[in-house]
Amino acid sequence: MSVQGSTFTQRISNVAKRLDGDASEVWEVHDKACAMADNGEDVLLLSVGDPDLDTHPDTINHVIDRLREGRTHYSPSSGEDSLRRIIADVEDRSARRPCSVDEVLIFPGATNAIYAVMRTLLNEGDEVILAEPMYIGYHGIFDSIGAKQVRIPLNAADNFSLDMEKLKASVTEKTKVIFINTPGNPAGNMLSEAELRELADFSYRNNIWLVSDEVYSMITFKERHTSLRKAAEHLDNIIVIDGLSKSHAMTGWRMGWTVAPESISKHLLNFSASTVFGCCQFVQDAAAYALQNDSAYMEEIRGEYQSRRDYVCQRVAAIPKLSCPTPDAGMFVMVDISQVAEDGQDFAHRLLDAQGVSVLPGIGFGEVTRNFVRISLAQPVEILEPAFDRIEGFINSLL
Ligand SMILES: Cc1ncc(COP(=O)(O)O)c(C=O)c1O
């Protein structure tokens, strides 16, 4: 390809080509809504996954002090030992089994941690089993590696629960990884301890890695999250990824980590050392402080999302022809629009044009949620209320 006005022929890698796929369709409504808002139009954004809540002020003050003390230098690629120790202690408590510092590695966000894990485990053409609907951000990771995604559709009528037999039946000799996300984005579904144990046993016996993205582990409503590390009998094939973006309203700080056996952490570290070369010292200080001083804040955040979820579910239930499974966790509610629109894409476009409310079309998360839209709880009830008044008005106008 030639750059316009230049005789230079731009040759790019296959990875860059694979990443050049067209994801714009999914974000079209959101991008349009943002442009409308920038133009001063009255738009309510329910399509964002970035918490409206701020990072706790004490964490910010702590980091300002640490910056003044000169915490602006290189940090080990594995992460600061003090932070790794704190995370290992959190793991000790949540999994009720010992976790060593050497099992913990720090990454600039869970996305980077997932990428490093998958890059370390998978070759082009290897198969990874995932449940659908799934987080949009996974596509780029697997596309760049050239791994084949084998998707297990979850049943919406069954609150997006996992069909274990279907999953087991989809394993082939090319399956190298089973990748789970619990609690899940977008469906807010959670795997039970028994399901996690069964998956762990199955993958261990079949020589398959079992990797769990648990970034919503702290935002649970019905019961507390069970970590895969707690449920699994053997940890040799188990990798857990977590971070502070969602739980501590710290998306912009870029903080995530892996908990993995030392034998594979060594390879993860090689990859991270040659791509990231260590996270910011002061961001790690922030993470350490946040994790050590978070119990009251965690309760506050959990309570806030729960009341938003309750509000949204109650409003959806009161609107004719809309319905939603009640999510057990996370920051989103999936609304079934099959009775009022062709599909989620059609609904989202028309809702934005008619009422200035943006929601994400479910197709972005997989075919199984084509007739859904995702409502984000990353807005306060003061925004959710007028947004739902408008959604109600829109549905009434259709009927
Ligand atoms: C399931 C899931 N995993 C990972 C991420 C990204 O986390 P981070 O901000 O730590 O990269 C998100 C963000 O929306 C997510 O929903």
Q: How would you describe this structure in keywords?
A:
binds pyridoxal-5'-phosphate, globular, single chain, Aspartate Aminotransferase, domain 2, alpha/beta, 399 residues, 2 domains, seven-stranded mixed β-sheet, Aspartate Aminotransferase, domain 1, 12 strands, 43% helix, three-stranded antiparallel β-sheet, 14 helices
List the helices and strands and how they pair.
Blueprint lengths: L13 H5 L5 H15 L5 E2 L11 H12 L12 H15 L8 E4 L2 H12 L5 E6 L5 H8 L2 E6 L10 H6 L5 E7 L11 H13 L3 E5 L14 H4 L6 E6 L12 E4 L2 H14 L5 H12 L2 H24 L13 E5 L7 H12 L1 E2 L1 E2 L10 E5 L4 H18 L1
Helix pairs in contact: 3-11, 4-11, 5-6, 5-10, 12-14
Give a nutshell description of this structure.
The protein is an alpha/beta fold. Helix content is 43%, strand content 14%.
Q: How does this structure look, described?
A:
The chain is of the alpha/beta class. The chain has 2 domains: 15-54 and 296-398, Aspartate Aminotransferase, domain 1, CATH 3.90.1150.10; 73-293, Type I PLP-dependent aspartate aminotransferase-like (Major domain) (Aspartate Aminotransferase, domain 2), CATH 3.40.640.10. It has 14 helices and 12 strands. Helix 6 links the parallel strand 3 (127-132) and strand 4. The longest helix is centred in the C-terminal third of the chain and has 24 residues, at 295-318. The mean pLDDT is 95. It binds pyridoxal-5'-phosphate (PLP). Residues 49, 109-111, 135, 137, 181, 185, 213, 215, 243, 245, 251, 256 line the site of pyridoxal-5'-phosphate.
